[in-house]
Amino acid sequence: MPRVSVIIPTYNAERYISATIGSVLAQTFQDFEILIVDDGSPDKSIEICKQFTDSRIKIIRQANRGLPGARNTGVRHAQANYIAFLDADDIWHPEKLEKHVEHLNNAPHVGISFSYSAFINEVGDLTGLYQKPKKLQGITPGYVLCRNPVGNGSAAVIRRAVFEEIKRPNDLHGVVEDQYFDESFRRAEDVDFWMRISLQTAWQLEGLPQVLTFYRITSGGLSASALQQLEALEKVIAKTQSYAPAVVAQYGHTARAYYLRYTARRAVTLRDGAMAVKMLHRALASDWRIFLEEPGRTLLTLGAAYLLWLLPQALYTRLEALALKSIRAKQTLSSSAVPSKLPPVSSTQSMAS
Fold this sequence. Notes:
There is one protein chain. This protein is an alpha/beta fold. The chain has two domains: 4-222, Spore Coat Polysaccharide Biosynthesis Protein SpsA, Chain A (Alpha-Beta Complex), CATH 3.90.550; 226-330, no CATH class. It contains 14 helices and eleven strands. It has helices spanning 17-25, 45-49, 66-77, 96-106, 141-147, 160-166, 189-200, 219-223, 226-243, 245-269, 273-286, 290-293, 295-310, 313-330; strands at residues 4-10, 32-39, 57-62, 82-85, 91-92, 110-120, 126-131, 156-159, 168-170, 177-179, 204-216. The strands form two sheets. Strands 1, 2, 3, 4, 5, 6, 7, 8 and 11 form a nine-stranded mixed beta sheet that branches. Helix 2 links the parallel strand 2 (32-39) and strand 3. Helix 10 runs antiparallel to helix 11 (273-286) and helix 10 (245-269) crosses helix 13 (295-310).
């Protein structure tokens, strides 16, 4: 039986899937299985996957259910005591599994081990920006609701016992199956997942202060509706309210403020200044204390929104370049925490010759 099951939900990922699989096969920790869940992908993703001949790779086919449904299918097929998810366009550092397995082996109270993440662009270059949560230990349900410290679905390695505690039978697809991720969500399903673990189990979330995940930002992702993401996060708050009303009463307004600020930042990325300003105003109206908790980031978002709204595009672009240079300098991590370049995983690494 493998020690780790790596689940890769796959849908329209033909540009990236080879490098993603290659980054798993290049791990220093090799006791794993790879479960590629073909979620009804219409492109050539699975044809590319079939070119890998490693016996640890299994392909599971299903009609499209969305990311939560693909993850659920993967968990039901997983054999290992540790389970990791890797989105089909993301990449892992070669020591990813080794570090997390060591962490979980040495910390029996930890159910979810996560890491820092570095953003990469469509062609796989480091952008110089990171997902670097402030808290790595002592993470409370309120902090999960407001800040989502795990950051993305490719950052965590999780004990199987965690899934056993939160599973619920569901006949959504005409047959009773255990469900772990809520398939009624098509966005923010991971935030709901972390919330249920934090509130309904005794397992702790803990992070490693190292960049072990490379999270890809694509044009398709950036063009997705920021308002739909906000709606999904509001749905997380509403669902949490149904089983943990005291937590939402204490943290709901703050969480909504952070979600609105996040939406404003996405609007800035999409070059929609009017929407960014509107979302910032709503965020501060929901809980102005985000200015006290994170003054730098909130002020930066506010400045970017107003400058984008008021200035000519060319002038804003020049100012943005200067601001990004400053942000990258402030986000500089120690040499032990972040690699200077991506791991050497080519698009054909470990494929059959």
